[in-house]
Each structure stands twice: as C-alpha cells, then as structure tokens.
Amino acid sequence: MNSLSLAERLAAMPTEAARLYLQELPDAAVQALGHHWPFWARPEQLAPAGDWRTWLILAGRGFGKTRAGAEWVRQIGESIADARIALVAANLADARSVMVEGQSGLLAIAPESTRPHWEPSLRRLRWPGGAQAVLFSAAEPEGLRGPEHSHAWCDEIAKWDNASGRAMAAWDNLQLGLRVGSLPQVCATTTPRAVPLVRRLLDDPGLVISRGSSHANRANLPPAFLAAVERHYGGTALGRQELDGELLEDVEGALWSRSLIEACRVRWQAQGLVRVVIGVDPPAGSSGDACGIIVCALQDDGRAAVLADTSVEGASPEGWARAVSAASEAWGADRIIAEANQGGEMVGAVLRASNIALPVRLVHASRGKAARAEPVAALYEAGRVVHCGTFARLEDEMCGLMAGGSYQGPGRSPDRADALVWALTELMLGRRGTPRIRSLET
Fold first, then answer.
1. Global pTM?
2. I need a labelling partner for 300 at 20 to 30 A (CA). Which of 78, 104, 190, 339 fits?
3. Which helix (H) or strand (E) holds 240?
4. CB of 299 within 8 A of CB of 275?
C-alpha cells in the first residue's frame, strides 16, 4: 500500500506531469485544493476509520499534530450543524494562541467562506452552519464540569499540570460531559511524556493511536531546525521522546523517573537567586568521559534551581577548566564544588591556573555515586528542586542511576549527574551530605 499522500505523490511527479495534471482541473477545484486536507495530509494525520471514542496522536515535535487536530475540528465544524466542541489546552493562553490563532490553528486553516467567527470575550468559535467550539483550561478542571459536548480536541495533554490531580480531573470532567450525539469523540494531540494521564490513556483498550517522528514532516520544517535538534538531542533519550515520538519507560529501581523530572520543570526566571554554585566532576583523562559542569542556584523561596548544563567532552584539563571559568563568569557563581577523587591536587591546580577568582571547594567522595545521589533524589520527591529548562543528557544520566548502586544510563559514567549531586548537596544539604570537604584559596 502506498503510504504517501496525494500531495506528496504530486510533488514526486516530474514538473511537467504535475503541471499538466493541475491544468486539467477547473479553477475552482485548484482553489479548493489549497484547503482540501485529505490532499495535503499524510495518512497518519487523518482521523482513523471506525467508531472510535478517543484518537491519540502521539508524535515528535514538528510532526504536524496541531494541524491534524485543527483539521479534524474544522471538518466537524463545517459538516455537523449541532456540533458542540470543547477545545482544551494546558491553559487558556495556549488554547487561544495555538488552537485558535496559531499558524496551524482553526482560523488560519479555514477557507474564507466557512471560517468560524471568533468571539474572544466568550472564548467561542461559531461556524456559519451552527456548530460551536468553546475554549477550556485543563488547569481549571471545574470549568469542564457541567458543559455537554459532542466532540473535543485536547492539545498537548502531557503538558497539562497535574498538581493536586488537576490534569486527571480535567480529563474526567470532559469525559463525563461527552454525551451529545450518537458518537461523542475526542482527539488528543501530544508529544509523548511518561505522565499519569498519557499512561492512563494507553491502557484504554478502545484507544486508537497515530504515531510519528519529527522527520516525517521534513518537507515542511526548516532544515536548520532539524539540524539543530539533531545536533543537540540526537542519540539521547530525550531525542527519542521529543523527536522520534517514543514514550520512554522508566528504568525500574532508578532514583529518578522521567515523570518526576517533568513535574519539577519550570520556565526560567532570572529572579530571586540567593546563591549560585557550579558542580564539577572532572574526567580521569582527556578522552572518553565528560567533565560534568552543572550550574545550580538557591532561590529565595527555599528551592534549588538547575540552571545550566555546560559539560564538555574530550577536553584537556585546560579545556574543561576554561569551560568551568566561562560558566562561572556567565552565571555569576559564588563557589565551585569539584570532586577531587580522580585528579587529587591536579584538580585544584588546574582550576587555580584558569584564573577563577572564586572559592573552589574540593570534595572527596567516601561513598558511591548512587549512594551520594539518594538524598538529592529525595529533594526532588519533596518538590524542593526545579529544572529551569530541559537538560537532555543530564536527565538521561539521572534516570540511569539505580538505588542499588549501579548505573544503567548512557555512557560509562554519570558525570553530569554526579556534578549535579555535588552542587545540590552544597546548596541544600550542606555538611549533612557527608563528603569530606576542604577549601582552596584561589
């Protein structure tokens, strides 16, 4: 079976053949072709056949999930006069900016003759034929208690905030209100993350799933974007999730789970930083293992924030020392915390030679990496650490540290994770972290 869309087959035709094909079409047909989604869509972007209840599009960034969800809603709005559609996003701002007004949103994809009327004050879209769609926030699940719907489009469900069970409550309230018409349906679009709501949907035997990677939509993505994300995330577990659209399962017995890290992720705010430290895990040699360099800060709310991963691989002692110096200058660090087990006095000498005008503290580990990491992992469980952004390689290593002391993550050693542990121990645990510590005058 040919899996290419008609548009892709047309694009693959010789130029002259494609021109002749289009010339044979009436002008009205050529104009209509621009808004005919089955012509342009890839098969996995089209709603599946059959009497399904929930259609989940689980795919990588840039796959075209938003366009697929919007086109599904558009088809319903134009063809079912009494349709009552819920548009649910993580918050109302996302619902408006992505689902309605975005580049692939409902207003942009509609032909002028059937474009819905947008009433921002009412959070409502009205199609000429009578169908209506109303915006809802998953952060306010009670807003979905009561309204009845025939259809719903839920965008980026893995991004919905589940604090106090809000995401699950929003989904449940939506399901209880899907009772209009003979076949109520939901389309959920998301990049996969191992959050409770996604896991729950995948356990539903009646679910139909469309999957795909970012590369499936290569023809519509800037080459520079694909090159950049491959360079930064290719070969990492996060790349498999965010680009390839895989749902990564946690390693049983690991100190950190991906869902725990996701729950700690926040947007970066350069405010309220009380103290900044840099954890350093130097390599034993100039090749192989990375030099872990992790920037963390204590915030004025008492939580620690992971700010940056500036680790370097294959660097000479002078090279990784320069990287530490650059990170220190960029973030205004108050102290450098460096493990000295591997290089002993060499570590201190290298950092002094790099002209870092800050106190450098050497820490000698008396326990294994996993044992040192356990109290830091407990800080995450208690909600006392946040990640200001996404740190793919660091998080892959964290999720490979096992409670029993072994390491099942990428690479030979969790260098980035170890640097994180030293930094957070300094900020949050102090001398209770049990390493033997002595200061260096620099």
1. 0.62
2. 339
3. helix 237-242
4. no
Pairing of strands 84-89, 265-266: unpaired
Q: Answer whether 360's CB lies under 8 Å from 352's CB.
A: yes
Per-residue pLDDT tens digits for 173-182? 999 999 999 9
**Distance between terminal CA atoms of the chain?**
69
Sign (positive or negative) of CA dihedral 344, 347, 350, 355: negative
Given a cut of 80, whether residue 279 has pLDDT beyond it is yes
376-392 pLDDT tens trace? 999 999 999 999 988 98
Report d(CA 319, CA 395) in Å as an integer: 24
pLDDT band at residue 163 using 50, 70 and 90 as cut-offs: confident
Question: H or E element: which one contains 175?
Answer: helix 166-177
Helix (H) or strand (E) holding 320: helix 317-331
- Residue 219: phi and psi, rounded to 5, are -60, -25
Angle of helix 415-424 versus helix 369-381 axis, rounded to 10: 60
pLDDT bucket at 218, cuts 50 / 70 / 90? confident
Element (DSSP H or E) covering residue 167:
helix 166-177
Rounded CA gap, 169 and 143, in Å? Answer: 11
- Give the Cβ contact number of residue 108 at 10 Å: 13
